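Example for tutorial group B:
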């Protein structure tokens, strides 16, 4: 009788162990498939150039589970309000610190304008990069954001985590009211003559023109102002000389904002496109 009890107990124990092993294996999940390195990262508000890597680097992508954060929790712990859209993991990079440093330089340049923030989501200086670290870079709103999403008061951000073994890039969204950015000094406004000289200072190909020098063209300022995203802009028309007729022909139309020195091109059908300076 006692032997039968011992046998049943051992059987139950074996079943429990097997079920536990199956549960653990299922919980661990299958490894993420390797994907081609993305060319850009995207949120509903913004698209930005992705971390440049060689073809040998292995990249995986992970979509997070949906999570909700209470407003009170976000106010007490700003980190809790960061919503991760997608996570990319990079393995097989040779010089991670240099790659991260150059990528930060790209993100923080004039083309994108990201700024680093600390744990309290306050703008800070970019620290010296070492073999292991984490950075959170936030993109202030500008006219590249989709107008339909501006009412949501959401900023796009990138979090970079790296060690000697690899780099992780998290594409994030952060409520705008939780982020504290430094006030940027506005440039001194230009006169009409100075704005014309400013346009003459560009290479023609930067403005979509075919000439070798801007001095091959004539720039004329138009009367009045044209509104772009609620900001008044000066319209300047660029004329080139037709070699066959000797007459001036319109080659391009541009809008200049004195508020932040933005430059726009009036494209076909009246659409306005910002020129990345």
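The residue assignment follows.
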């Amino acid at each position: 009788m006692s032997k039968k009890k011992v046998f049943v107990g051992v059987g139950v124990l074996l079943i429990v162990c097997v079920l536990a092993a199956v549960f653990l294996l299922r919980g661990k999940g299958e490894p993420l498939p390797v994907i081609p390195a993305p060319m850009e990262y995207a949120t509903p508000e913004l698209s930005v150039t992705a971390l440049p890597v060689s073809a040998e680097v292995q990249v995986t992508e992970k979509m997070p589970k949906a999570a909700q954060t209470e407003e009170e929790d976000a106010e007490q712990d700003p980190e809790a309000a960061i919503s991760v859209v997608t996570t990319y993991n990079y393995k097989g990079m040779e010089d991670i610190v240099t790659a991260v440093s150059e990528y930060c330089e790209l993100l923080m340049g004039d083309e994108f304008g990201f700024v680093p923030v600390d744990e309290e989501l306050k703008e800070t200086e970019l620290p010296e990069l070492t073999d292991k670290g984490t950075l959170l870079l936030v993109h202030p709103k500008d006219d590249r954001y989709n107008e339909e999403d501006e009412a949501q008061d959401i900023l796009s951000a990138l979090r970079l985590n790296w060690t000697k073994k690899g780099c992780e890039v998290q594409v994030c969204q952060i409520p705008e009211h939780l982020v504290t950015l430094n006030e940027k000094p506005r440039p001194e406004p230009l006169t009409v003559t100075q704005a014309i000289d400013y346009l003459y200072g560009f290479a023609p190909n930067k403005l979509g023109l075919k000439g070798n020098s801007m001095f091959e063209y004539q720039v004329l300022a138009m009367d009045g102002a044209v509104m772009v995203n609620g900001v008044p802009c000066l319209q300047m028309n660029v004329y080139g000389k037709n070699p066959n007729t000797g007459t001036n022909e319109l080659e391009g139309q541009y809008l200049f904002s004195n508020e932040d020195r933005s430059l726009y091109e009036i494209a076909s059908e009246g659409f306005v496109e910002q020129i990345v300076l």
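Residues 1-27 have pLDDT under 50 and may be disordered. Compare this with the pattern of hydrophobic and polar residues in the output above.
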